[in-house]
Predict the structure.
Amino acid sequence: MQPNRLRKKIKLGSLYLMFLFFIFFAMDIACQYIIKSTFNMSIYEEDYAQRKAIFYKDKQSKYFVHPYFGLASIADKKNSPTDIAEDYLYHSVALSPKKNDIKVLLLGGSVGAFLSNRMDKNGLGKEQDFNTAFSSILNAHFGVDHFSVYNASILGGKQPQQFFKLMYLDLIGFEPDIVINVDGFNELALPLSDNFDAKLPAVYPRQHNRAISRTALDNECGDYSNYFVKSNSKIAIFELVGLIIINNCHKEITVSPTDTPYWVEKNSKSYTQYVNESVAIWARSSNLIYSFLKPKKISYIHVLQPNQYQVDSKALSEIEKKEYLSFPYYGDHITKNYHMFTKDLIKSNNFTDLRLIFKNESRTVYADNCCHLNSLGNSMLAREIIISNEDLFKRLLH
């Protein structure tokens, strides 16, 4: 072959490759746009994998919507002291060996739930620590083994779900000796982001319309769908193909952010109105719990949890600065509004404001960029709850 003909072939081949690359690049941009406009998310967002994970189909464990208190999990413990219901009610239960045990009921969101679990930077701790952390610390503090801890916190829950959970437990016959409600973050972050964006009433559970849709997952979705859920590519063409397959498999959960069911608010409310409503819901729910328990002579401890997005609430460690302040979608609402939760809105004398518990703590106590604590943080929070309300627990021991 003559040199000139060879050079021409190389040149044509190079042009052909460049043309293919250009087509691929253009298609990739087009696919990114389709993903963004159709699924309202970008493959380059930090929480992309997390948002896509809601499509994962686990037949053994999934979230569903309870008719009275919102989200629950089939992994929760079962308790039915009467024949009224056979529901899954507790995130965890740690029982005392004593027949005359003291029943402690924990309410809250995931921070309350994980008070019963030891956490580290990789998530939950060893299996032998699971479900026992708060009860172990409580019993050890008083040198007894009388306290049983029923943790009825709801992952992703917010007021008034704690209030309704308590009402439902009372309906089926559960009688605690003391109730602890750990809240704060979810009561602001969830209604001001998830509900506000979807035009849901602030009082509703987070993204209630989507939660109902997720309950209706297609049971026939197989491993091929789960593969694309767990596989996250930065090549938009591949991701779009995967999302289409997932979408076809789980048609029921693709609720558009602009879809407005008839039972949501028709008129848009301002951000300020949502803030004020969220604060009012937080206070009224807590006060209703207190008013319900007082005639029963059951002590109520309301704990306002700490959060890293509250300005000057902690001497942040390097990892907390670098990795655990990276979710402003929720965190900004805490930064702007957490100061609005004040003691004078709460009736209970046992309001325990622990927002500044880590004020002088330089070690790492947070476990992620949301709100959760590692083992050290959980232990410190649990101990401070107990110490701040020591007299209430002592009374139950006599």
The chain has two domains: 3-56+210-253, 76-204+264-397.
